[in-house]
Amino acid sequence: MEYVTAEPPAPADPGHPAPAARRSLALALLGGALGVALVLLSSRQEWATGTVSVAGGDFPATASGGEVTGVPAALAVVGLAALVALFAVRRAGRRAVAVVLALSGAGALVSALPRVWVGGALDERAAAVAGDTTASVHSVATTAWPYTSVAGGALILLAGLLALRHGRWWPAMSGRHERSGPDGRPRAVRTAGVPERPEDLWKALDRGEDPTGGEPEVSGERVGPSD
């Protein structure tokens, strides 16, 4: 009977304790996810209001975040994809994804600032209400939702910066079922004696064998290889 020796865990990096890595990972995940949610939520809300003056009087005009600019929401989706991809790559790939995450947050933040879009935010609404492409809106006011989107972009940016600073100590998708072969490519690790097909599994159970490859026990004592 063969025994499988477990590989010893990798030694912790004394320069970056595990608790610090866990804290930075939790902050990045929470901040990034919250930031994406805030940006996407705010894009559906009312960002600006104004008044259009036409021959019959004054008419109110409003515009949602998506009507004002679709850039923050698009960058938030990119940030969400980058946040997930952080755990599928390692080393240089993780740094590249972290840069994308940080840039998407910065872009969402800047594009949601009222001073970037407020000048022509309601012009299309004014043209539709007045039936005149030269019509414009006056008394323009912004709501709190653009600043909510700005805060969301800042959180995504923070997640990207945390990934750049601490990402190399974060875990990646488990590779414990893979081991490099002679050609350097990963290969699946099989445990000796473990059936691969369902029918073999049932046959092993009928014979009274342990299909997982575990060691049989008799009277509470583990049976090892005979001398």
Explain this structure to me?
By secondary structure, this protein is an alpha+beta fold. Helix content is 48%, strand content 15%. It has a three-stranded antiparallel beta sheet. The N terminus is likely disordered.
N- and C-termini, Cα separation: 12 Å
Helical coverage, percent range: 40-55%
Structural class: alpha+beta
Question: What is the averaged pLDDT score?
Answer: 76
Count of DSSP H/I helices: 8
Using the alpha-carbon principal axes, give the shape.
elongated
Largest sheet: 3 strands, antiparallel
How many beta strands in the DSSP annotation?
7
Radius of gyration in whole Å, from Cα? 29 Å
Question: Order of strands across the biggest sheet?
Answer: 2-1-3
Order of helices and strands: HEEHHHHHEHEEHEE
Low-confidence parts: 1-14, 175-180, 188-192, 215-224
Strand content: 5-15%
Feature tags:
227 residues; alpha+beta; 3-stranded antiparallel beta sheet; two-stranded antiparallel ribbon; 8 helices; 7 strands; disordered N terminus
How would you sum up this structure in a few lines?
The protein is of the alpha+beta class.
